[in-house]
User: What shape does this take?
Amino acid sequence: MPTPRIGVLSVQGGFAEHTDMLRNLGADPTPVRRLDHLQRLDGLVIPGGESTTISRLLDLSGMLEPLRELIAAGLPTFGTCAGLIMLATDVLDTRPDAHSLGALDISVRRNAFGRQVNSFETTLNMAHVAEDTEAVFIRAPRVERVGESVEELATLPDGTVVAVQSGVVLGTSFHPELTGDDRIHRYFLSLVEQSR
Ligand code: GLN
Assistant: This one.
């Protein structure tokens, strides 16, 4: 099969690290900045950053509705941190004018880990991936409700859900792309292959 072409939403945030990781895994990452960049993708990554800014830029560029439609039609998509927020149906503690793509039936609360622990690193037992997956949390969102269509893939020791999947849509509260651990990206690429 030809190399999978993975769009990396590159309007704001940590797109460079995802691009590097995908390229190192043999995929063909391509930046998505405008509407016409949404053509002929085999998958899509939505990086971390600032979800309200990503939302505004998707709106301004006219990509919001086409992206909703593409993901609803089965485009494999992986969102990290702000990317997870963008994929959720319900976002708590956000701006009233912020939009999301509604691809994962979950409620997420932005910046929910408190000030002292704005940033931390841990290893997680993640279903389908590894028992010791590396995870970096930076002003991370907390998943507070998980719908029936959504599988919980990883939790923190206190039970907080931090990785979810629904069909070929994958989301993590944390940043795997900031670690040397590419196994979640490998798993995502396996979902892309399956759906081709
Ligand atoms: N706090 C950011 C938001 O609400 C997410 C942080 C991140 O992506 N690292 O969008």
Notes: The longest helix spans residues 183-195. Residues 48-51, 81-82, 85, 110-111, 138-139 surround glutamine (CB under 6 Å). Residues 62 and 151 are 31 Å apart (CA to CA). Residues 5-195 form a domain with the Rossmann fold fold (CATH 3.40.50.880).
